[in-house]
DNA sequence: AACCGGTACAACCGCTTGTTA
DNA sequence: CTAACAAGCGGTTGTACCGGT
């Protein structure tokens, strides 16, 4: 059996990184650069596996990371790129300066997926399904009913009941601009 | 105040890919 | 060509936090 950098788990720290661990990693990489991740933990005096160090550095400690809320432009770009590339998070993140694949993936799963579903768009294929289309119409109808205090809107979504083809929701996927800092 | 469910995000895991001897 | 290894990637899990009851 081949030994990986994470095999001696009993000696490894796991879970959330402490400030001291972060600082050790930052100090080491600042001084020596990103060398061999397998040997880095020992050299830096960290009881972590190389993989864990790499992840921590790439996603959270690296300089020039943006962090914080995504802008509308970034939202839009992620959605368009996802429609084109699928779950290729590193490729998508590559077009968003200061963002990591992990951050984009998490943001997609916790925000954008829901946002698309609310809009009646299937986040898996970026199409408006009949079910979702109907559901979104119901959602908006229900909302406007509440707002207009009881005025009834009839026949929700029936206008597309005979349309068997899904509706393309993202017409312009040809130009895929990246966001420049 | 205590509990509960939902959300956001950090971290882990296993697989794939690229490189080198 | 192939085996071994390091690095990268994407899916999944764990957990802290927050708002509602």
Automatic annotation (TrEMBL):
<dbReference type="InterPro" id="IPR001005">
    <property type="entry name" value="SANT/Myb"/>
</dbReference>
<keyword id="KW-0804">Transcription</keyword>
<feature type="domain" description="HTH myb-type">
    <location>
        <begin position="9"/>
        <end position="61"/>
    </location>
</feature>
<dbReference type="GO" id="GO:0000976">
    <property type="term" value="F:transcription cis-regulatory region binding"/>
</dbReference>
<feature type="domain" description="Myb-like">
    <location>
        <begin position="9"/>
        <end position="61"/>
    </location>
</feature>
<dbReference type="Pfam" id="PF00249">
    <property type="entry name" value="Myb_DNA-binding"/>
</dbReference>
<keyword id="KW-0677">Repeat</keyword>
<keyword id="KW-0238">DNA-binding</keyword>
<dbReference type="InterPro" id="IPR009057">
    <property type="entry name" value="Homeodomain-like_sf"/>
</dbReference>
<dbReference type="GO" id="GO:0080090">
    <property type="term" value="P:regulation of primary metabolic process"/>
</dbReference>
<keyword id="KW-0805">Transcription regulation</keyword>
<dbReference type="GO" id="GO:0010597">
    <property type="term" value="P:green leaf volatile biosynthetic process"/>
</dbReference>
<dbReference type="InterPro" id="IPR015495">
    <property type="entry name" value="Myb_TF_plants"/>
</dbReference>
<dbReference type="GO" id="GO:0051707">
    <property type="term" value="P:response to other organism"/>
</dbReference>
<dbReference type="GO" id="GO:0005634">
    <property type="term" value="C:nucleus"/>
</dbReference>
<feature type="domain" description="Myb-like">
    <location>
        <begin position="62"/>
        <end position="112"/>
    </location>
</feature>
<feature type="compositionally biased region" description="Polar residues">
    <location>
        <begin position="151"/>
        <end position="167"/>
    </location>
</feature>
<protein>
    <submittedName>
        <fullName>Transcription factor myb3</fullName>
    </submittedName>
</protein>
<feature type="region of interest" description="Disordered">
    <location>
        <begin position="150"/>
        <end position="181"/>
    </location>
</feature>
<feature type="domain" description="HTH myb-type">
    <location>
        <begin position="62"/>
        <end position="116"/>
    </location>
</feature>
<keyword id="KW-0539">Nucleus</keyword>
<dbReference type="InterPro" id="IPR017930">
    <property type="entry name" value="Myb_dom"/>
</dbReference>
